[in-house]
Specification:
By secondary structure, this protein is mainly alpha-helical. Among the domains are: about 95-225, no CATH class; about 230-260, no CATH class. The protein is built from nine helices and no strands. The protein has helices spanning about 1-15, 55-60, 70-85, 95-110, 115-120, 140, 145-180, 190-220, 250-260.
Length: about 260
């Protein structure tokens, strides 16, 4: 248990550097966070009307279709429906606290460039997976592409590299486990230390790629914004449940007030 806590602490310390700017990087870190994909609208009362659990239960218990069911089963069915109409997204069991902290930090603010480079360097492409690499642009297309297009593609290539590098350890372990199915379960497939090294690398790289993807998405909206409001696309603003942060209204007010003061 102590050893597992130590490696989690090491990983947490590595991820703690995430939002610090890289002094050796010539280019500023890309920023941008996309708002989450809108959830499908659910059937039910509109215009802000809420449905209480009691109202739902009363309506359903008066339905003839449930009259013949045992009371306990009635209650279970009602509970399932209440959960369905009141939860915007189904969730699973909670992650271990330290892993959750690491993920949330990287998804919000990205991974430190030094840690990112180190993790990517440790992963090599399998010799029989030629497409498990960054996809290059055909020279004929690259030569005629506009500068903004090239710039965005370069950023996407960088996050694609992190995504692919994160996929490699998972793919390798999936192959090893698949080949071990049906064999003696008492024989460990891989040493826990090797599993941890590969899986922790995958977690960090894929989470970092997701953050950088959100930064690219954020910048796609920059051209549609008034010059005074382009600052909300800054990569310094952490990603939240919505692409431009959950406090966007307050930040827009601040920008507007600053604009008035400058006039």
């Amino acid at each position: 248990m102590a050893a597992s806590n130590d490696v989690l602490d090491d990983m947490l310390a590595e991820a703690a550097l995430l939002s610090e700017p890289d002094p050796d990087s010539a280019q500023p870190r890309t920023s941008g966070e996309l708002t989450e994909i809108e959830q499908p609208k659910q059937n039910g009362p509109q215009d802000g009307a809420s449905v209480s659990e009691g109202e739902i239960e009363d309506d359903l218990l008066n339905d003839e279709a449930t009259d013949s069911l045992p009371a306990s089963q009635n209650g279970a069915l009602v509970d399932d429906l209440v959960h369905e109409v009141t939860e915007s997204e189904p969730t699973d069991h909670a992650l271990p606290e330290k892993i959750s902290t690491i993920l949330n930090n990287i998804l919000a603010s990205g991974l430190n460039e030094q840690a990112l480079a180190k993790r990517k360097e440790s992963v090599k492409r399998p010799e029989n997976c030629n497409l498990l690499r960054v996809t290059k642009v055909n020279p004929e297309i690259w030569d005629i592409a506009r500068k903004p297009t090239r710039s965005m593609d370069a950023r996407l290539q960088k996050l694609q590299e992190a995504l692919i590098k994160g996929l490699i350890p998972i793919s390798r372990f999936a192959g090893i486990v698949g080949e071990s199915l049906g064999k003696d379960p008492k024989v460990p497939v891989l040493p826990p230390e090797e599993l941890w090294e590969g899986l922790s690398t995958s977690v960090l790289l894929i989470a970092s790629a997701n953050h950088d993807l959100n930064m690219c998405r954020r910048d796609l909206f920059k051209a549609d914004l008034d010059e005074n409001y382009k600052a909300i696309c800054s990569s310094k603003e952490p990603v939240a449940a919505e692409l431009f942060g959950d406090d966007l209204t307050e930040r827009l007010k601040t920008v507007k007030e600053s604009k008035k003061a400058a006039q």
